[in-house]
Task: structure prediction
Amino acid sequence: MFVWLSFKLLWLANELVLVAFIGMLFGLAVSAGVDRLEKRRVPRGLGAAFIVISFFAAMYGLGALIAPTVTEQAGVLKQRLPDAVERVEQWFEQRHGGVFGAILGESPEPRSTVADSAAQAAARAAAVARADSAAQVAPESPLRERLAAQLSGVTRYLFPFLSSTLAVLAGLAIILFVAIYVAADTQLYHRGLMHLFPHRSRPIAGEVLSEIATQLRRWLTTQLIAMVVIGVVSTVVLLILDVKAAFALGLLAGLLEFIPTVGPILSAVPAIAMGFLDSPEKALYVTIAYIAIQQLEGHILIPLLMKGGMDLPPVLTILAQALMALLFGFLGLMVAVPMLATVMVPVKMLYVERVVGDDVMPDDDDEEDDDDG
Result:
């Protein structure tokens, strides 16, 4: 009965639990810096507060610096993205009979003769040329209306926690204080968790908890660095390609990098669509650029930052992200991978290694030697 009530409470307070989990992740990452400050005789509480507050202050300063440009370009992106998608639809319709219309639920038009197709293509070209001047008076197309409605529904589904400014501020405050307290005294919470296990099980439980903390700390540090690198590189590439709203699209690519596998795809779609505003060739160049960036990240950046890190099967990662997004929306999508790692570590250490007998956990000896050196 108690267990059922506990799970019921966790389910009802799922947003609070997920926000607290994010704060714990940041706290574990910050604890590495607090350890170094402690060696210089800086108290752990002061060091944790200094690192966390400095991080958020730097983020706020960077946001204030780029906010005017990003705000302006975000408005451009919001205004022009439906035009870009409609341009993609027109391009595909000329070749494949309205792919996006079929996806969005529009009934496909019957095929016409070659002469009729040529006449329709000429009429469409003339309509596109007059689109900018007639935008103020012309009614929205069914595709635009359907796209706007579906995007609105997706936004309400993925970002329900953004409906209240107070809720956002409260969530940030929880993350801030949880990160500071976890980083200030990680051993306090480690010892508290150890009291939940019988004495004979505490040695292996301690090993599992330490390995979970190490894996999560390494993953989050890697993701934060990758977010900055991908955001900067994507912005520079989009500026070189002269894509509209390059700063806003680059910022979106950096933020969505926090979500493995799914995030890069979500960030590439609007960039490719904005490329179509100029030409299909530019959209192709944007596609190639995003694929190249992700390949360089996956084969060079991440292996360098996360040697011997989490080895999660891609299919299992995608399924976990889909399940968490279905249950908890965008917050669930954000924490799906670290939560999956939290489950996989004890499975590997307690079952695969101790029951099956296979050695699957990464060897951290080299990394510890590097840290000592």
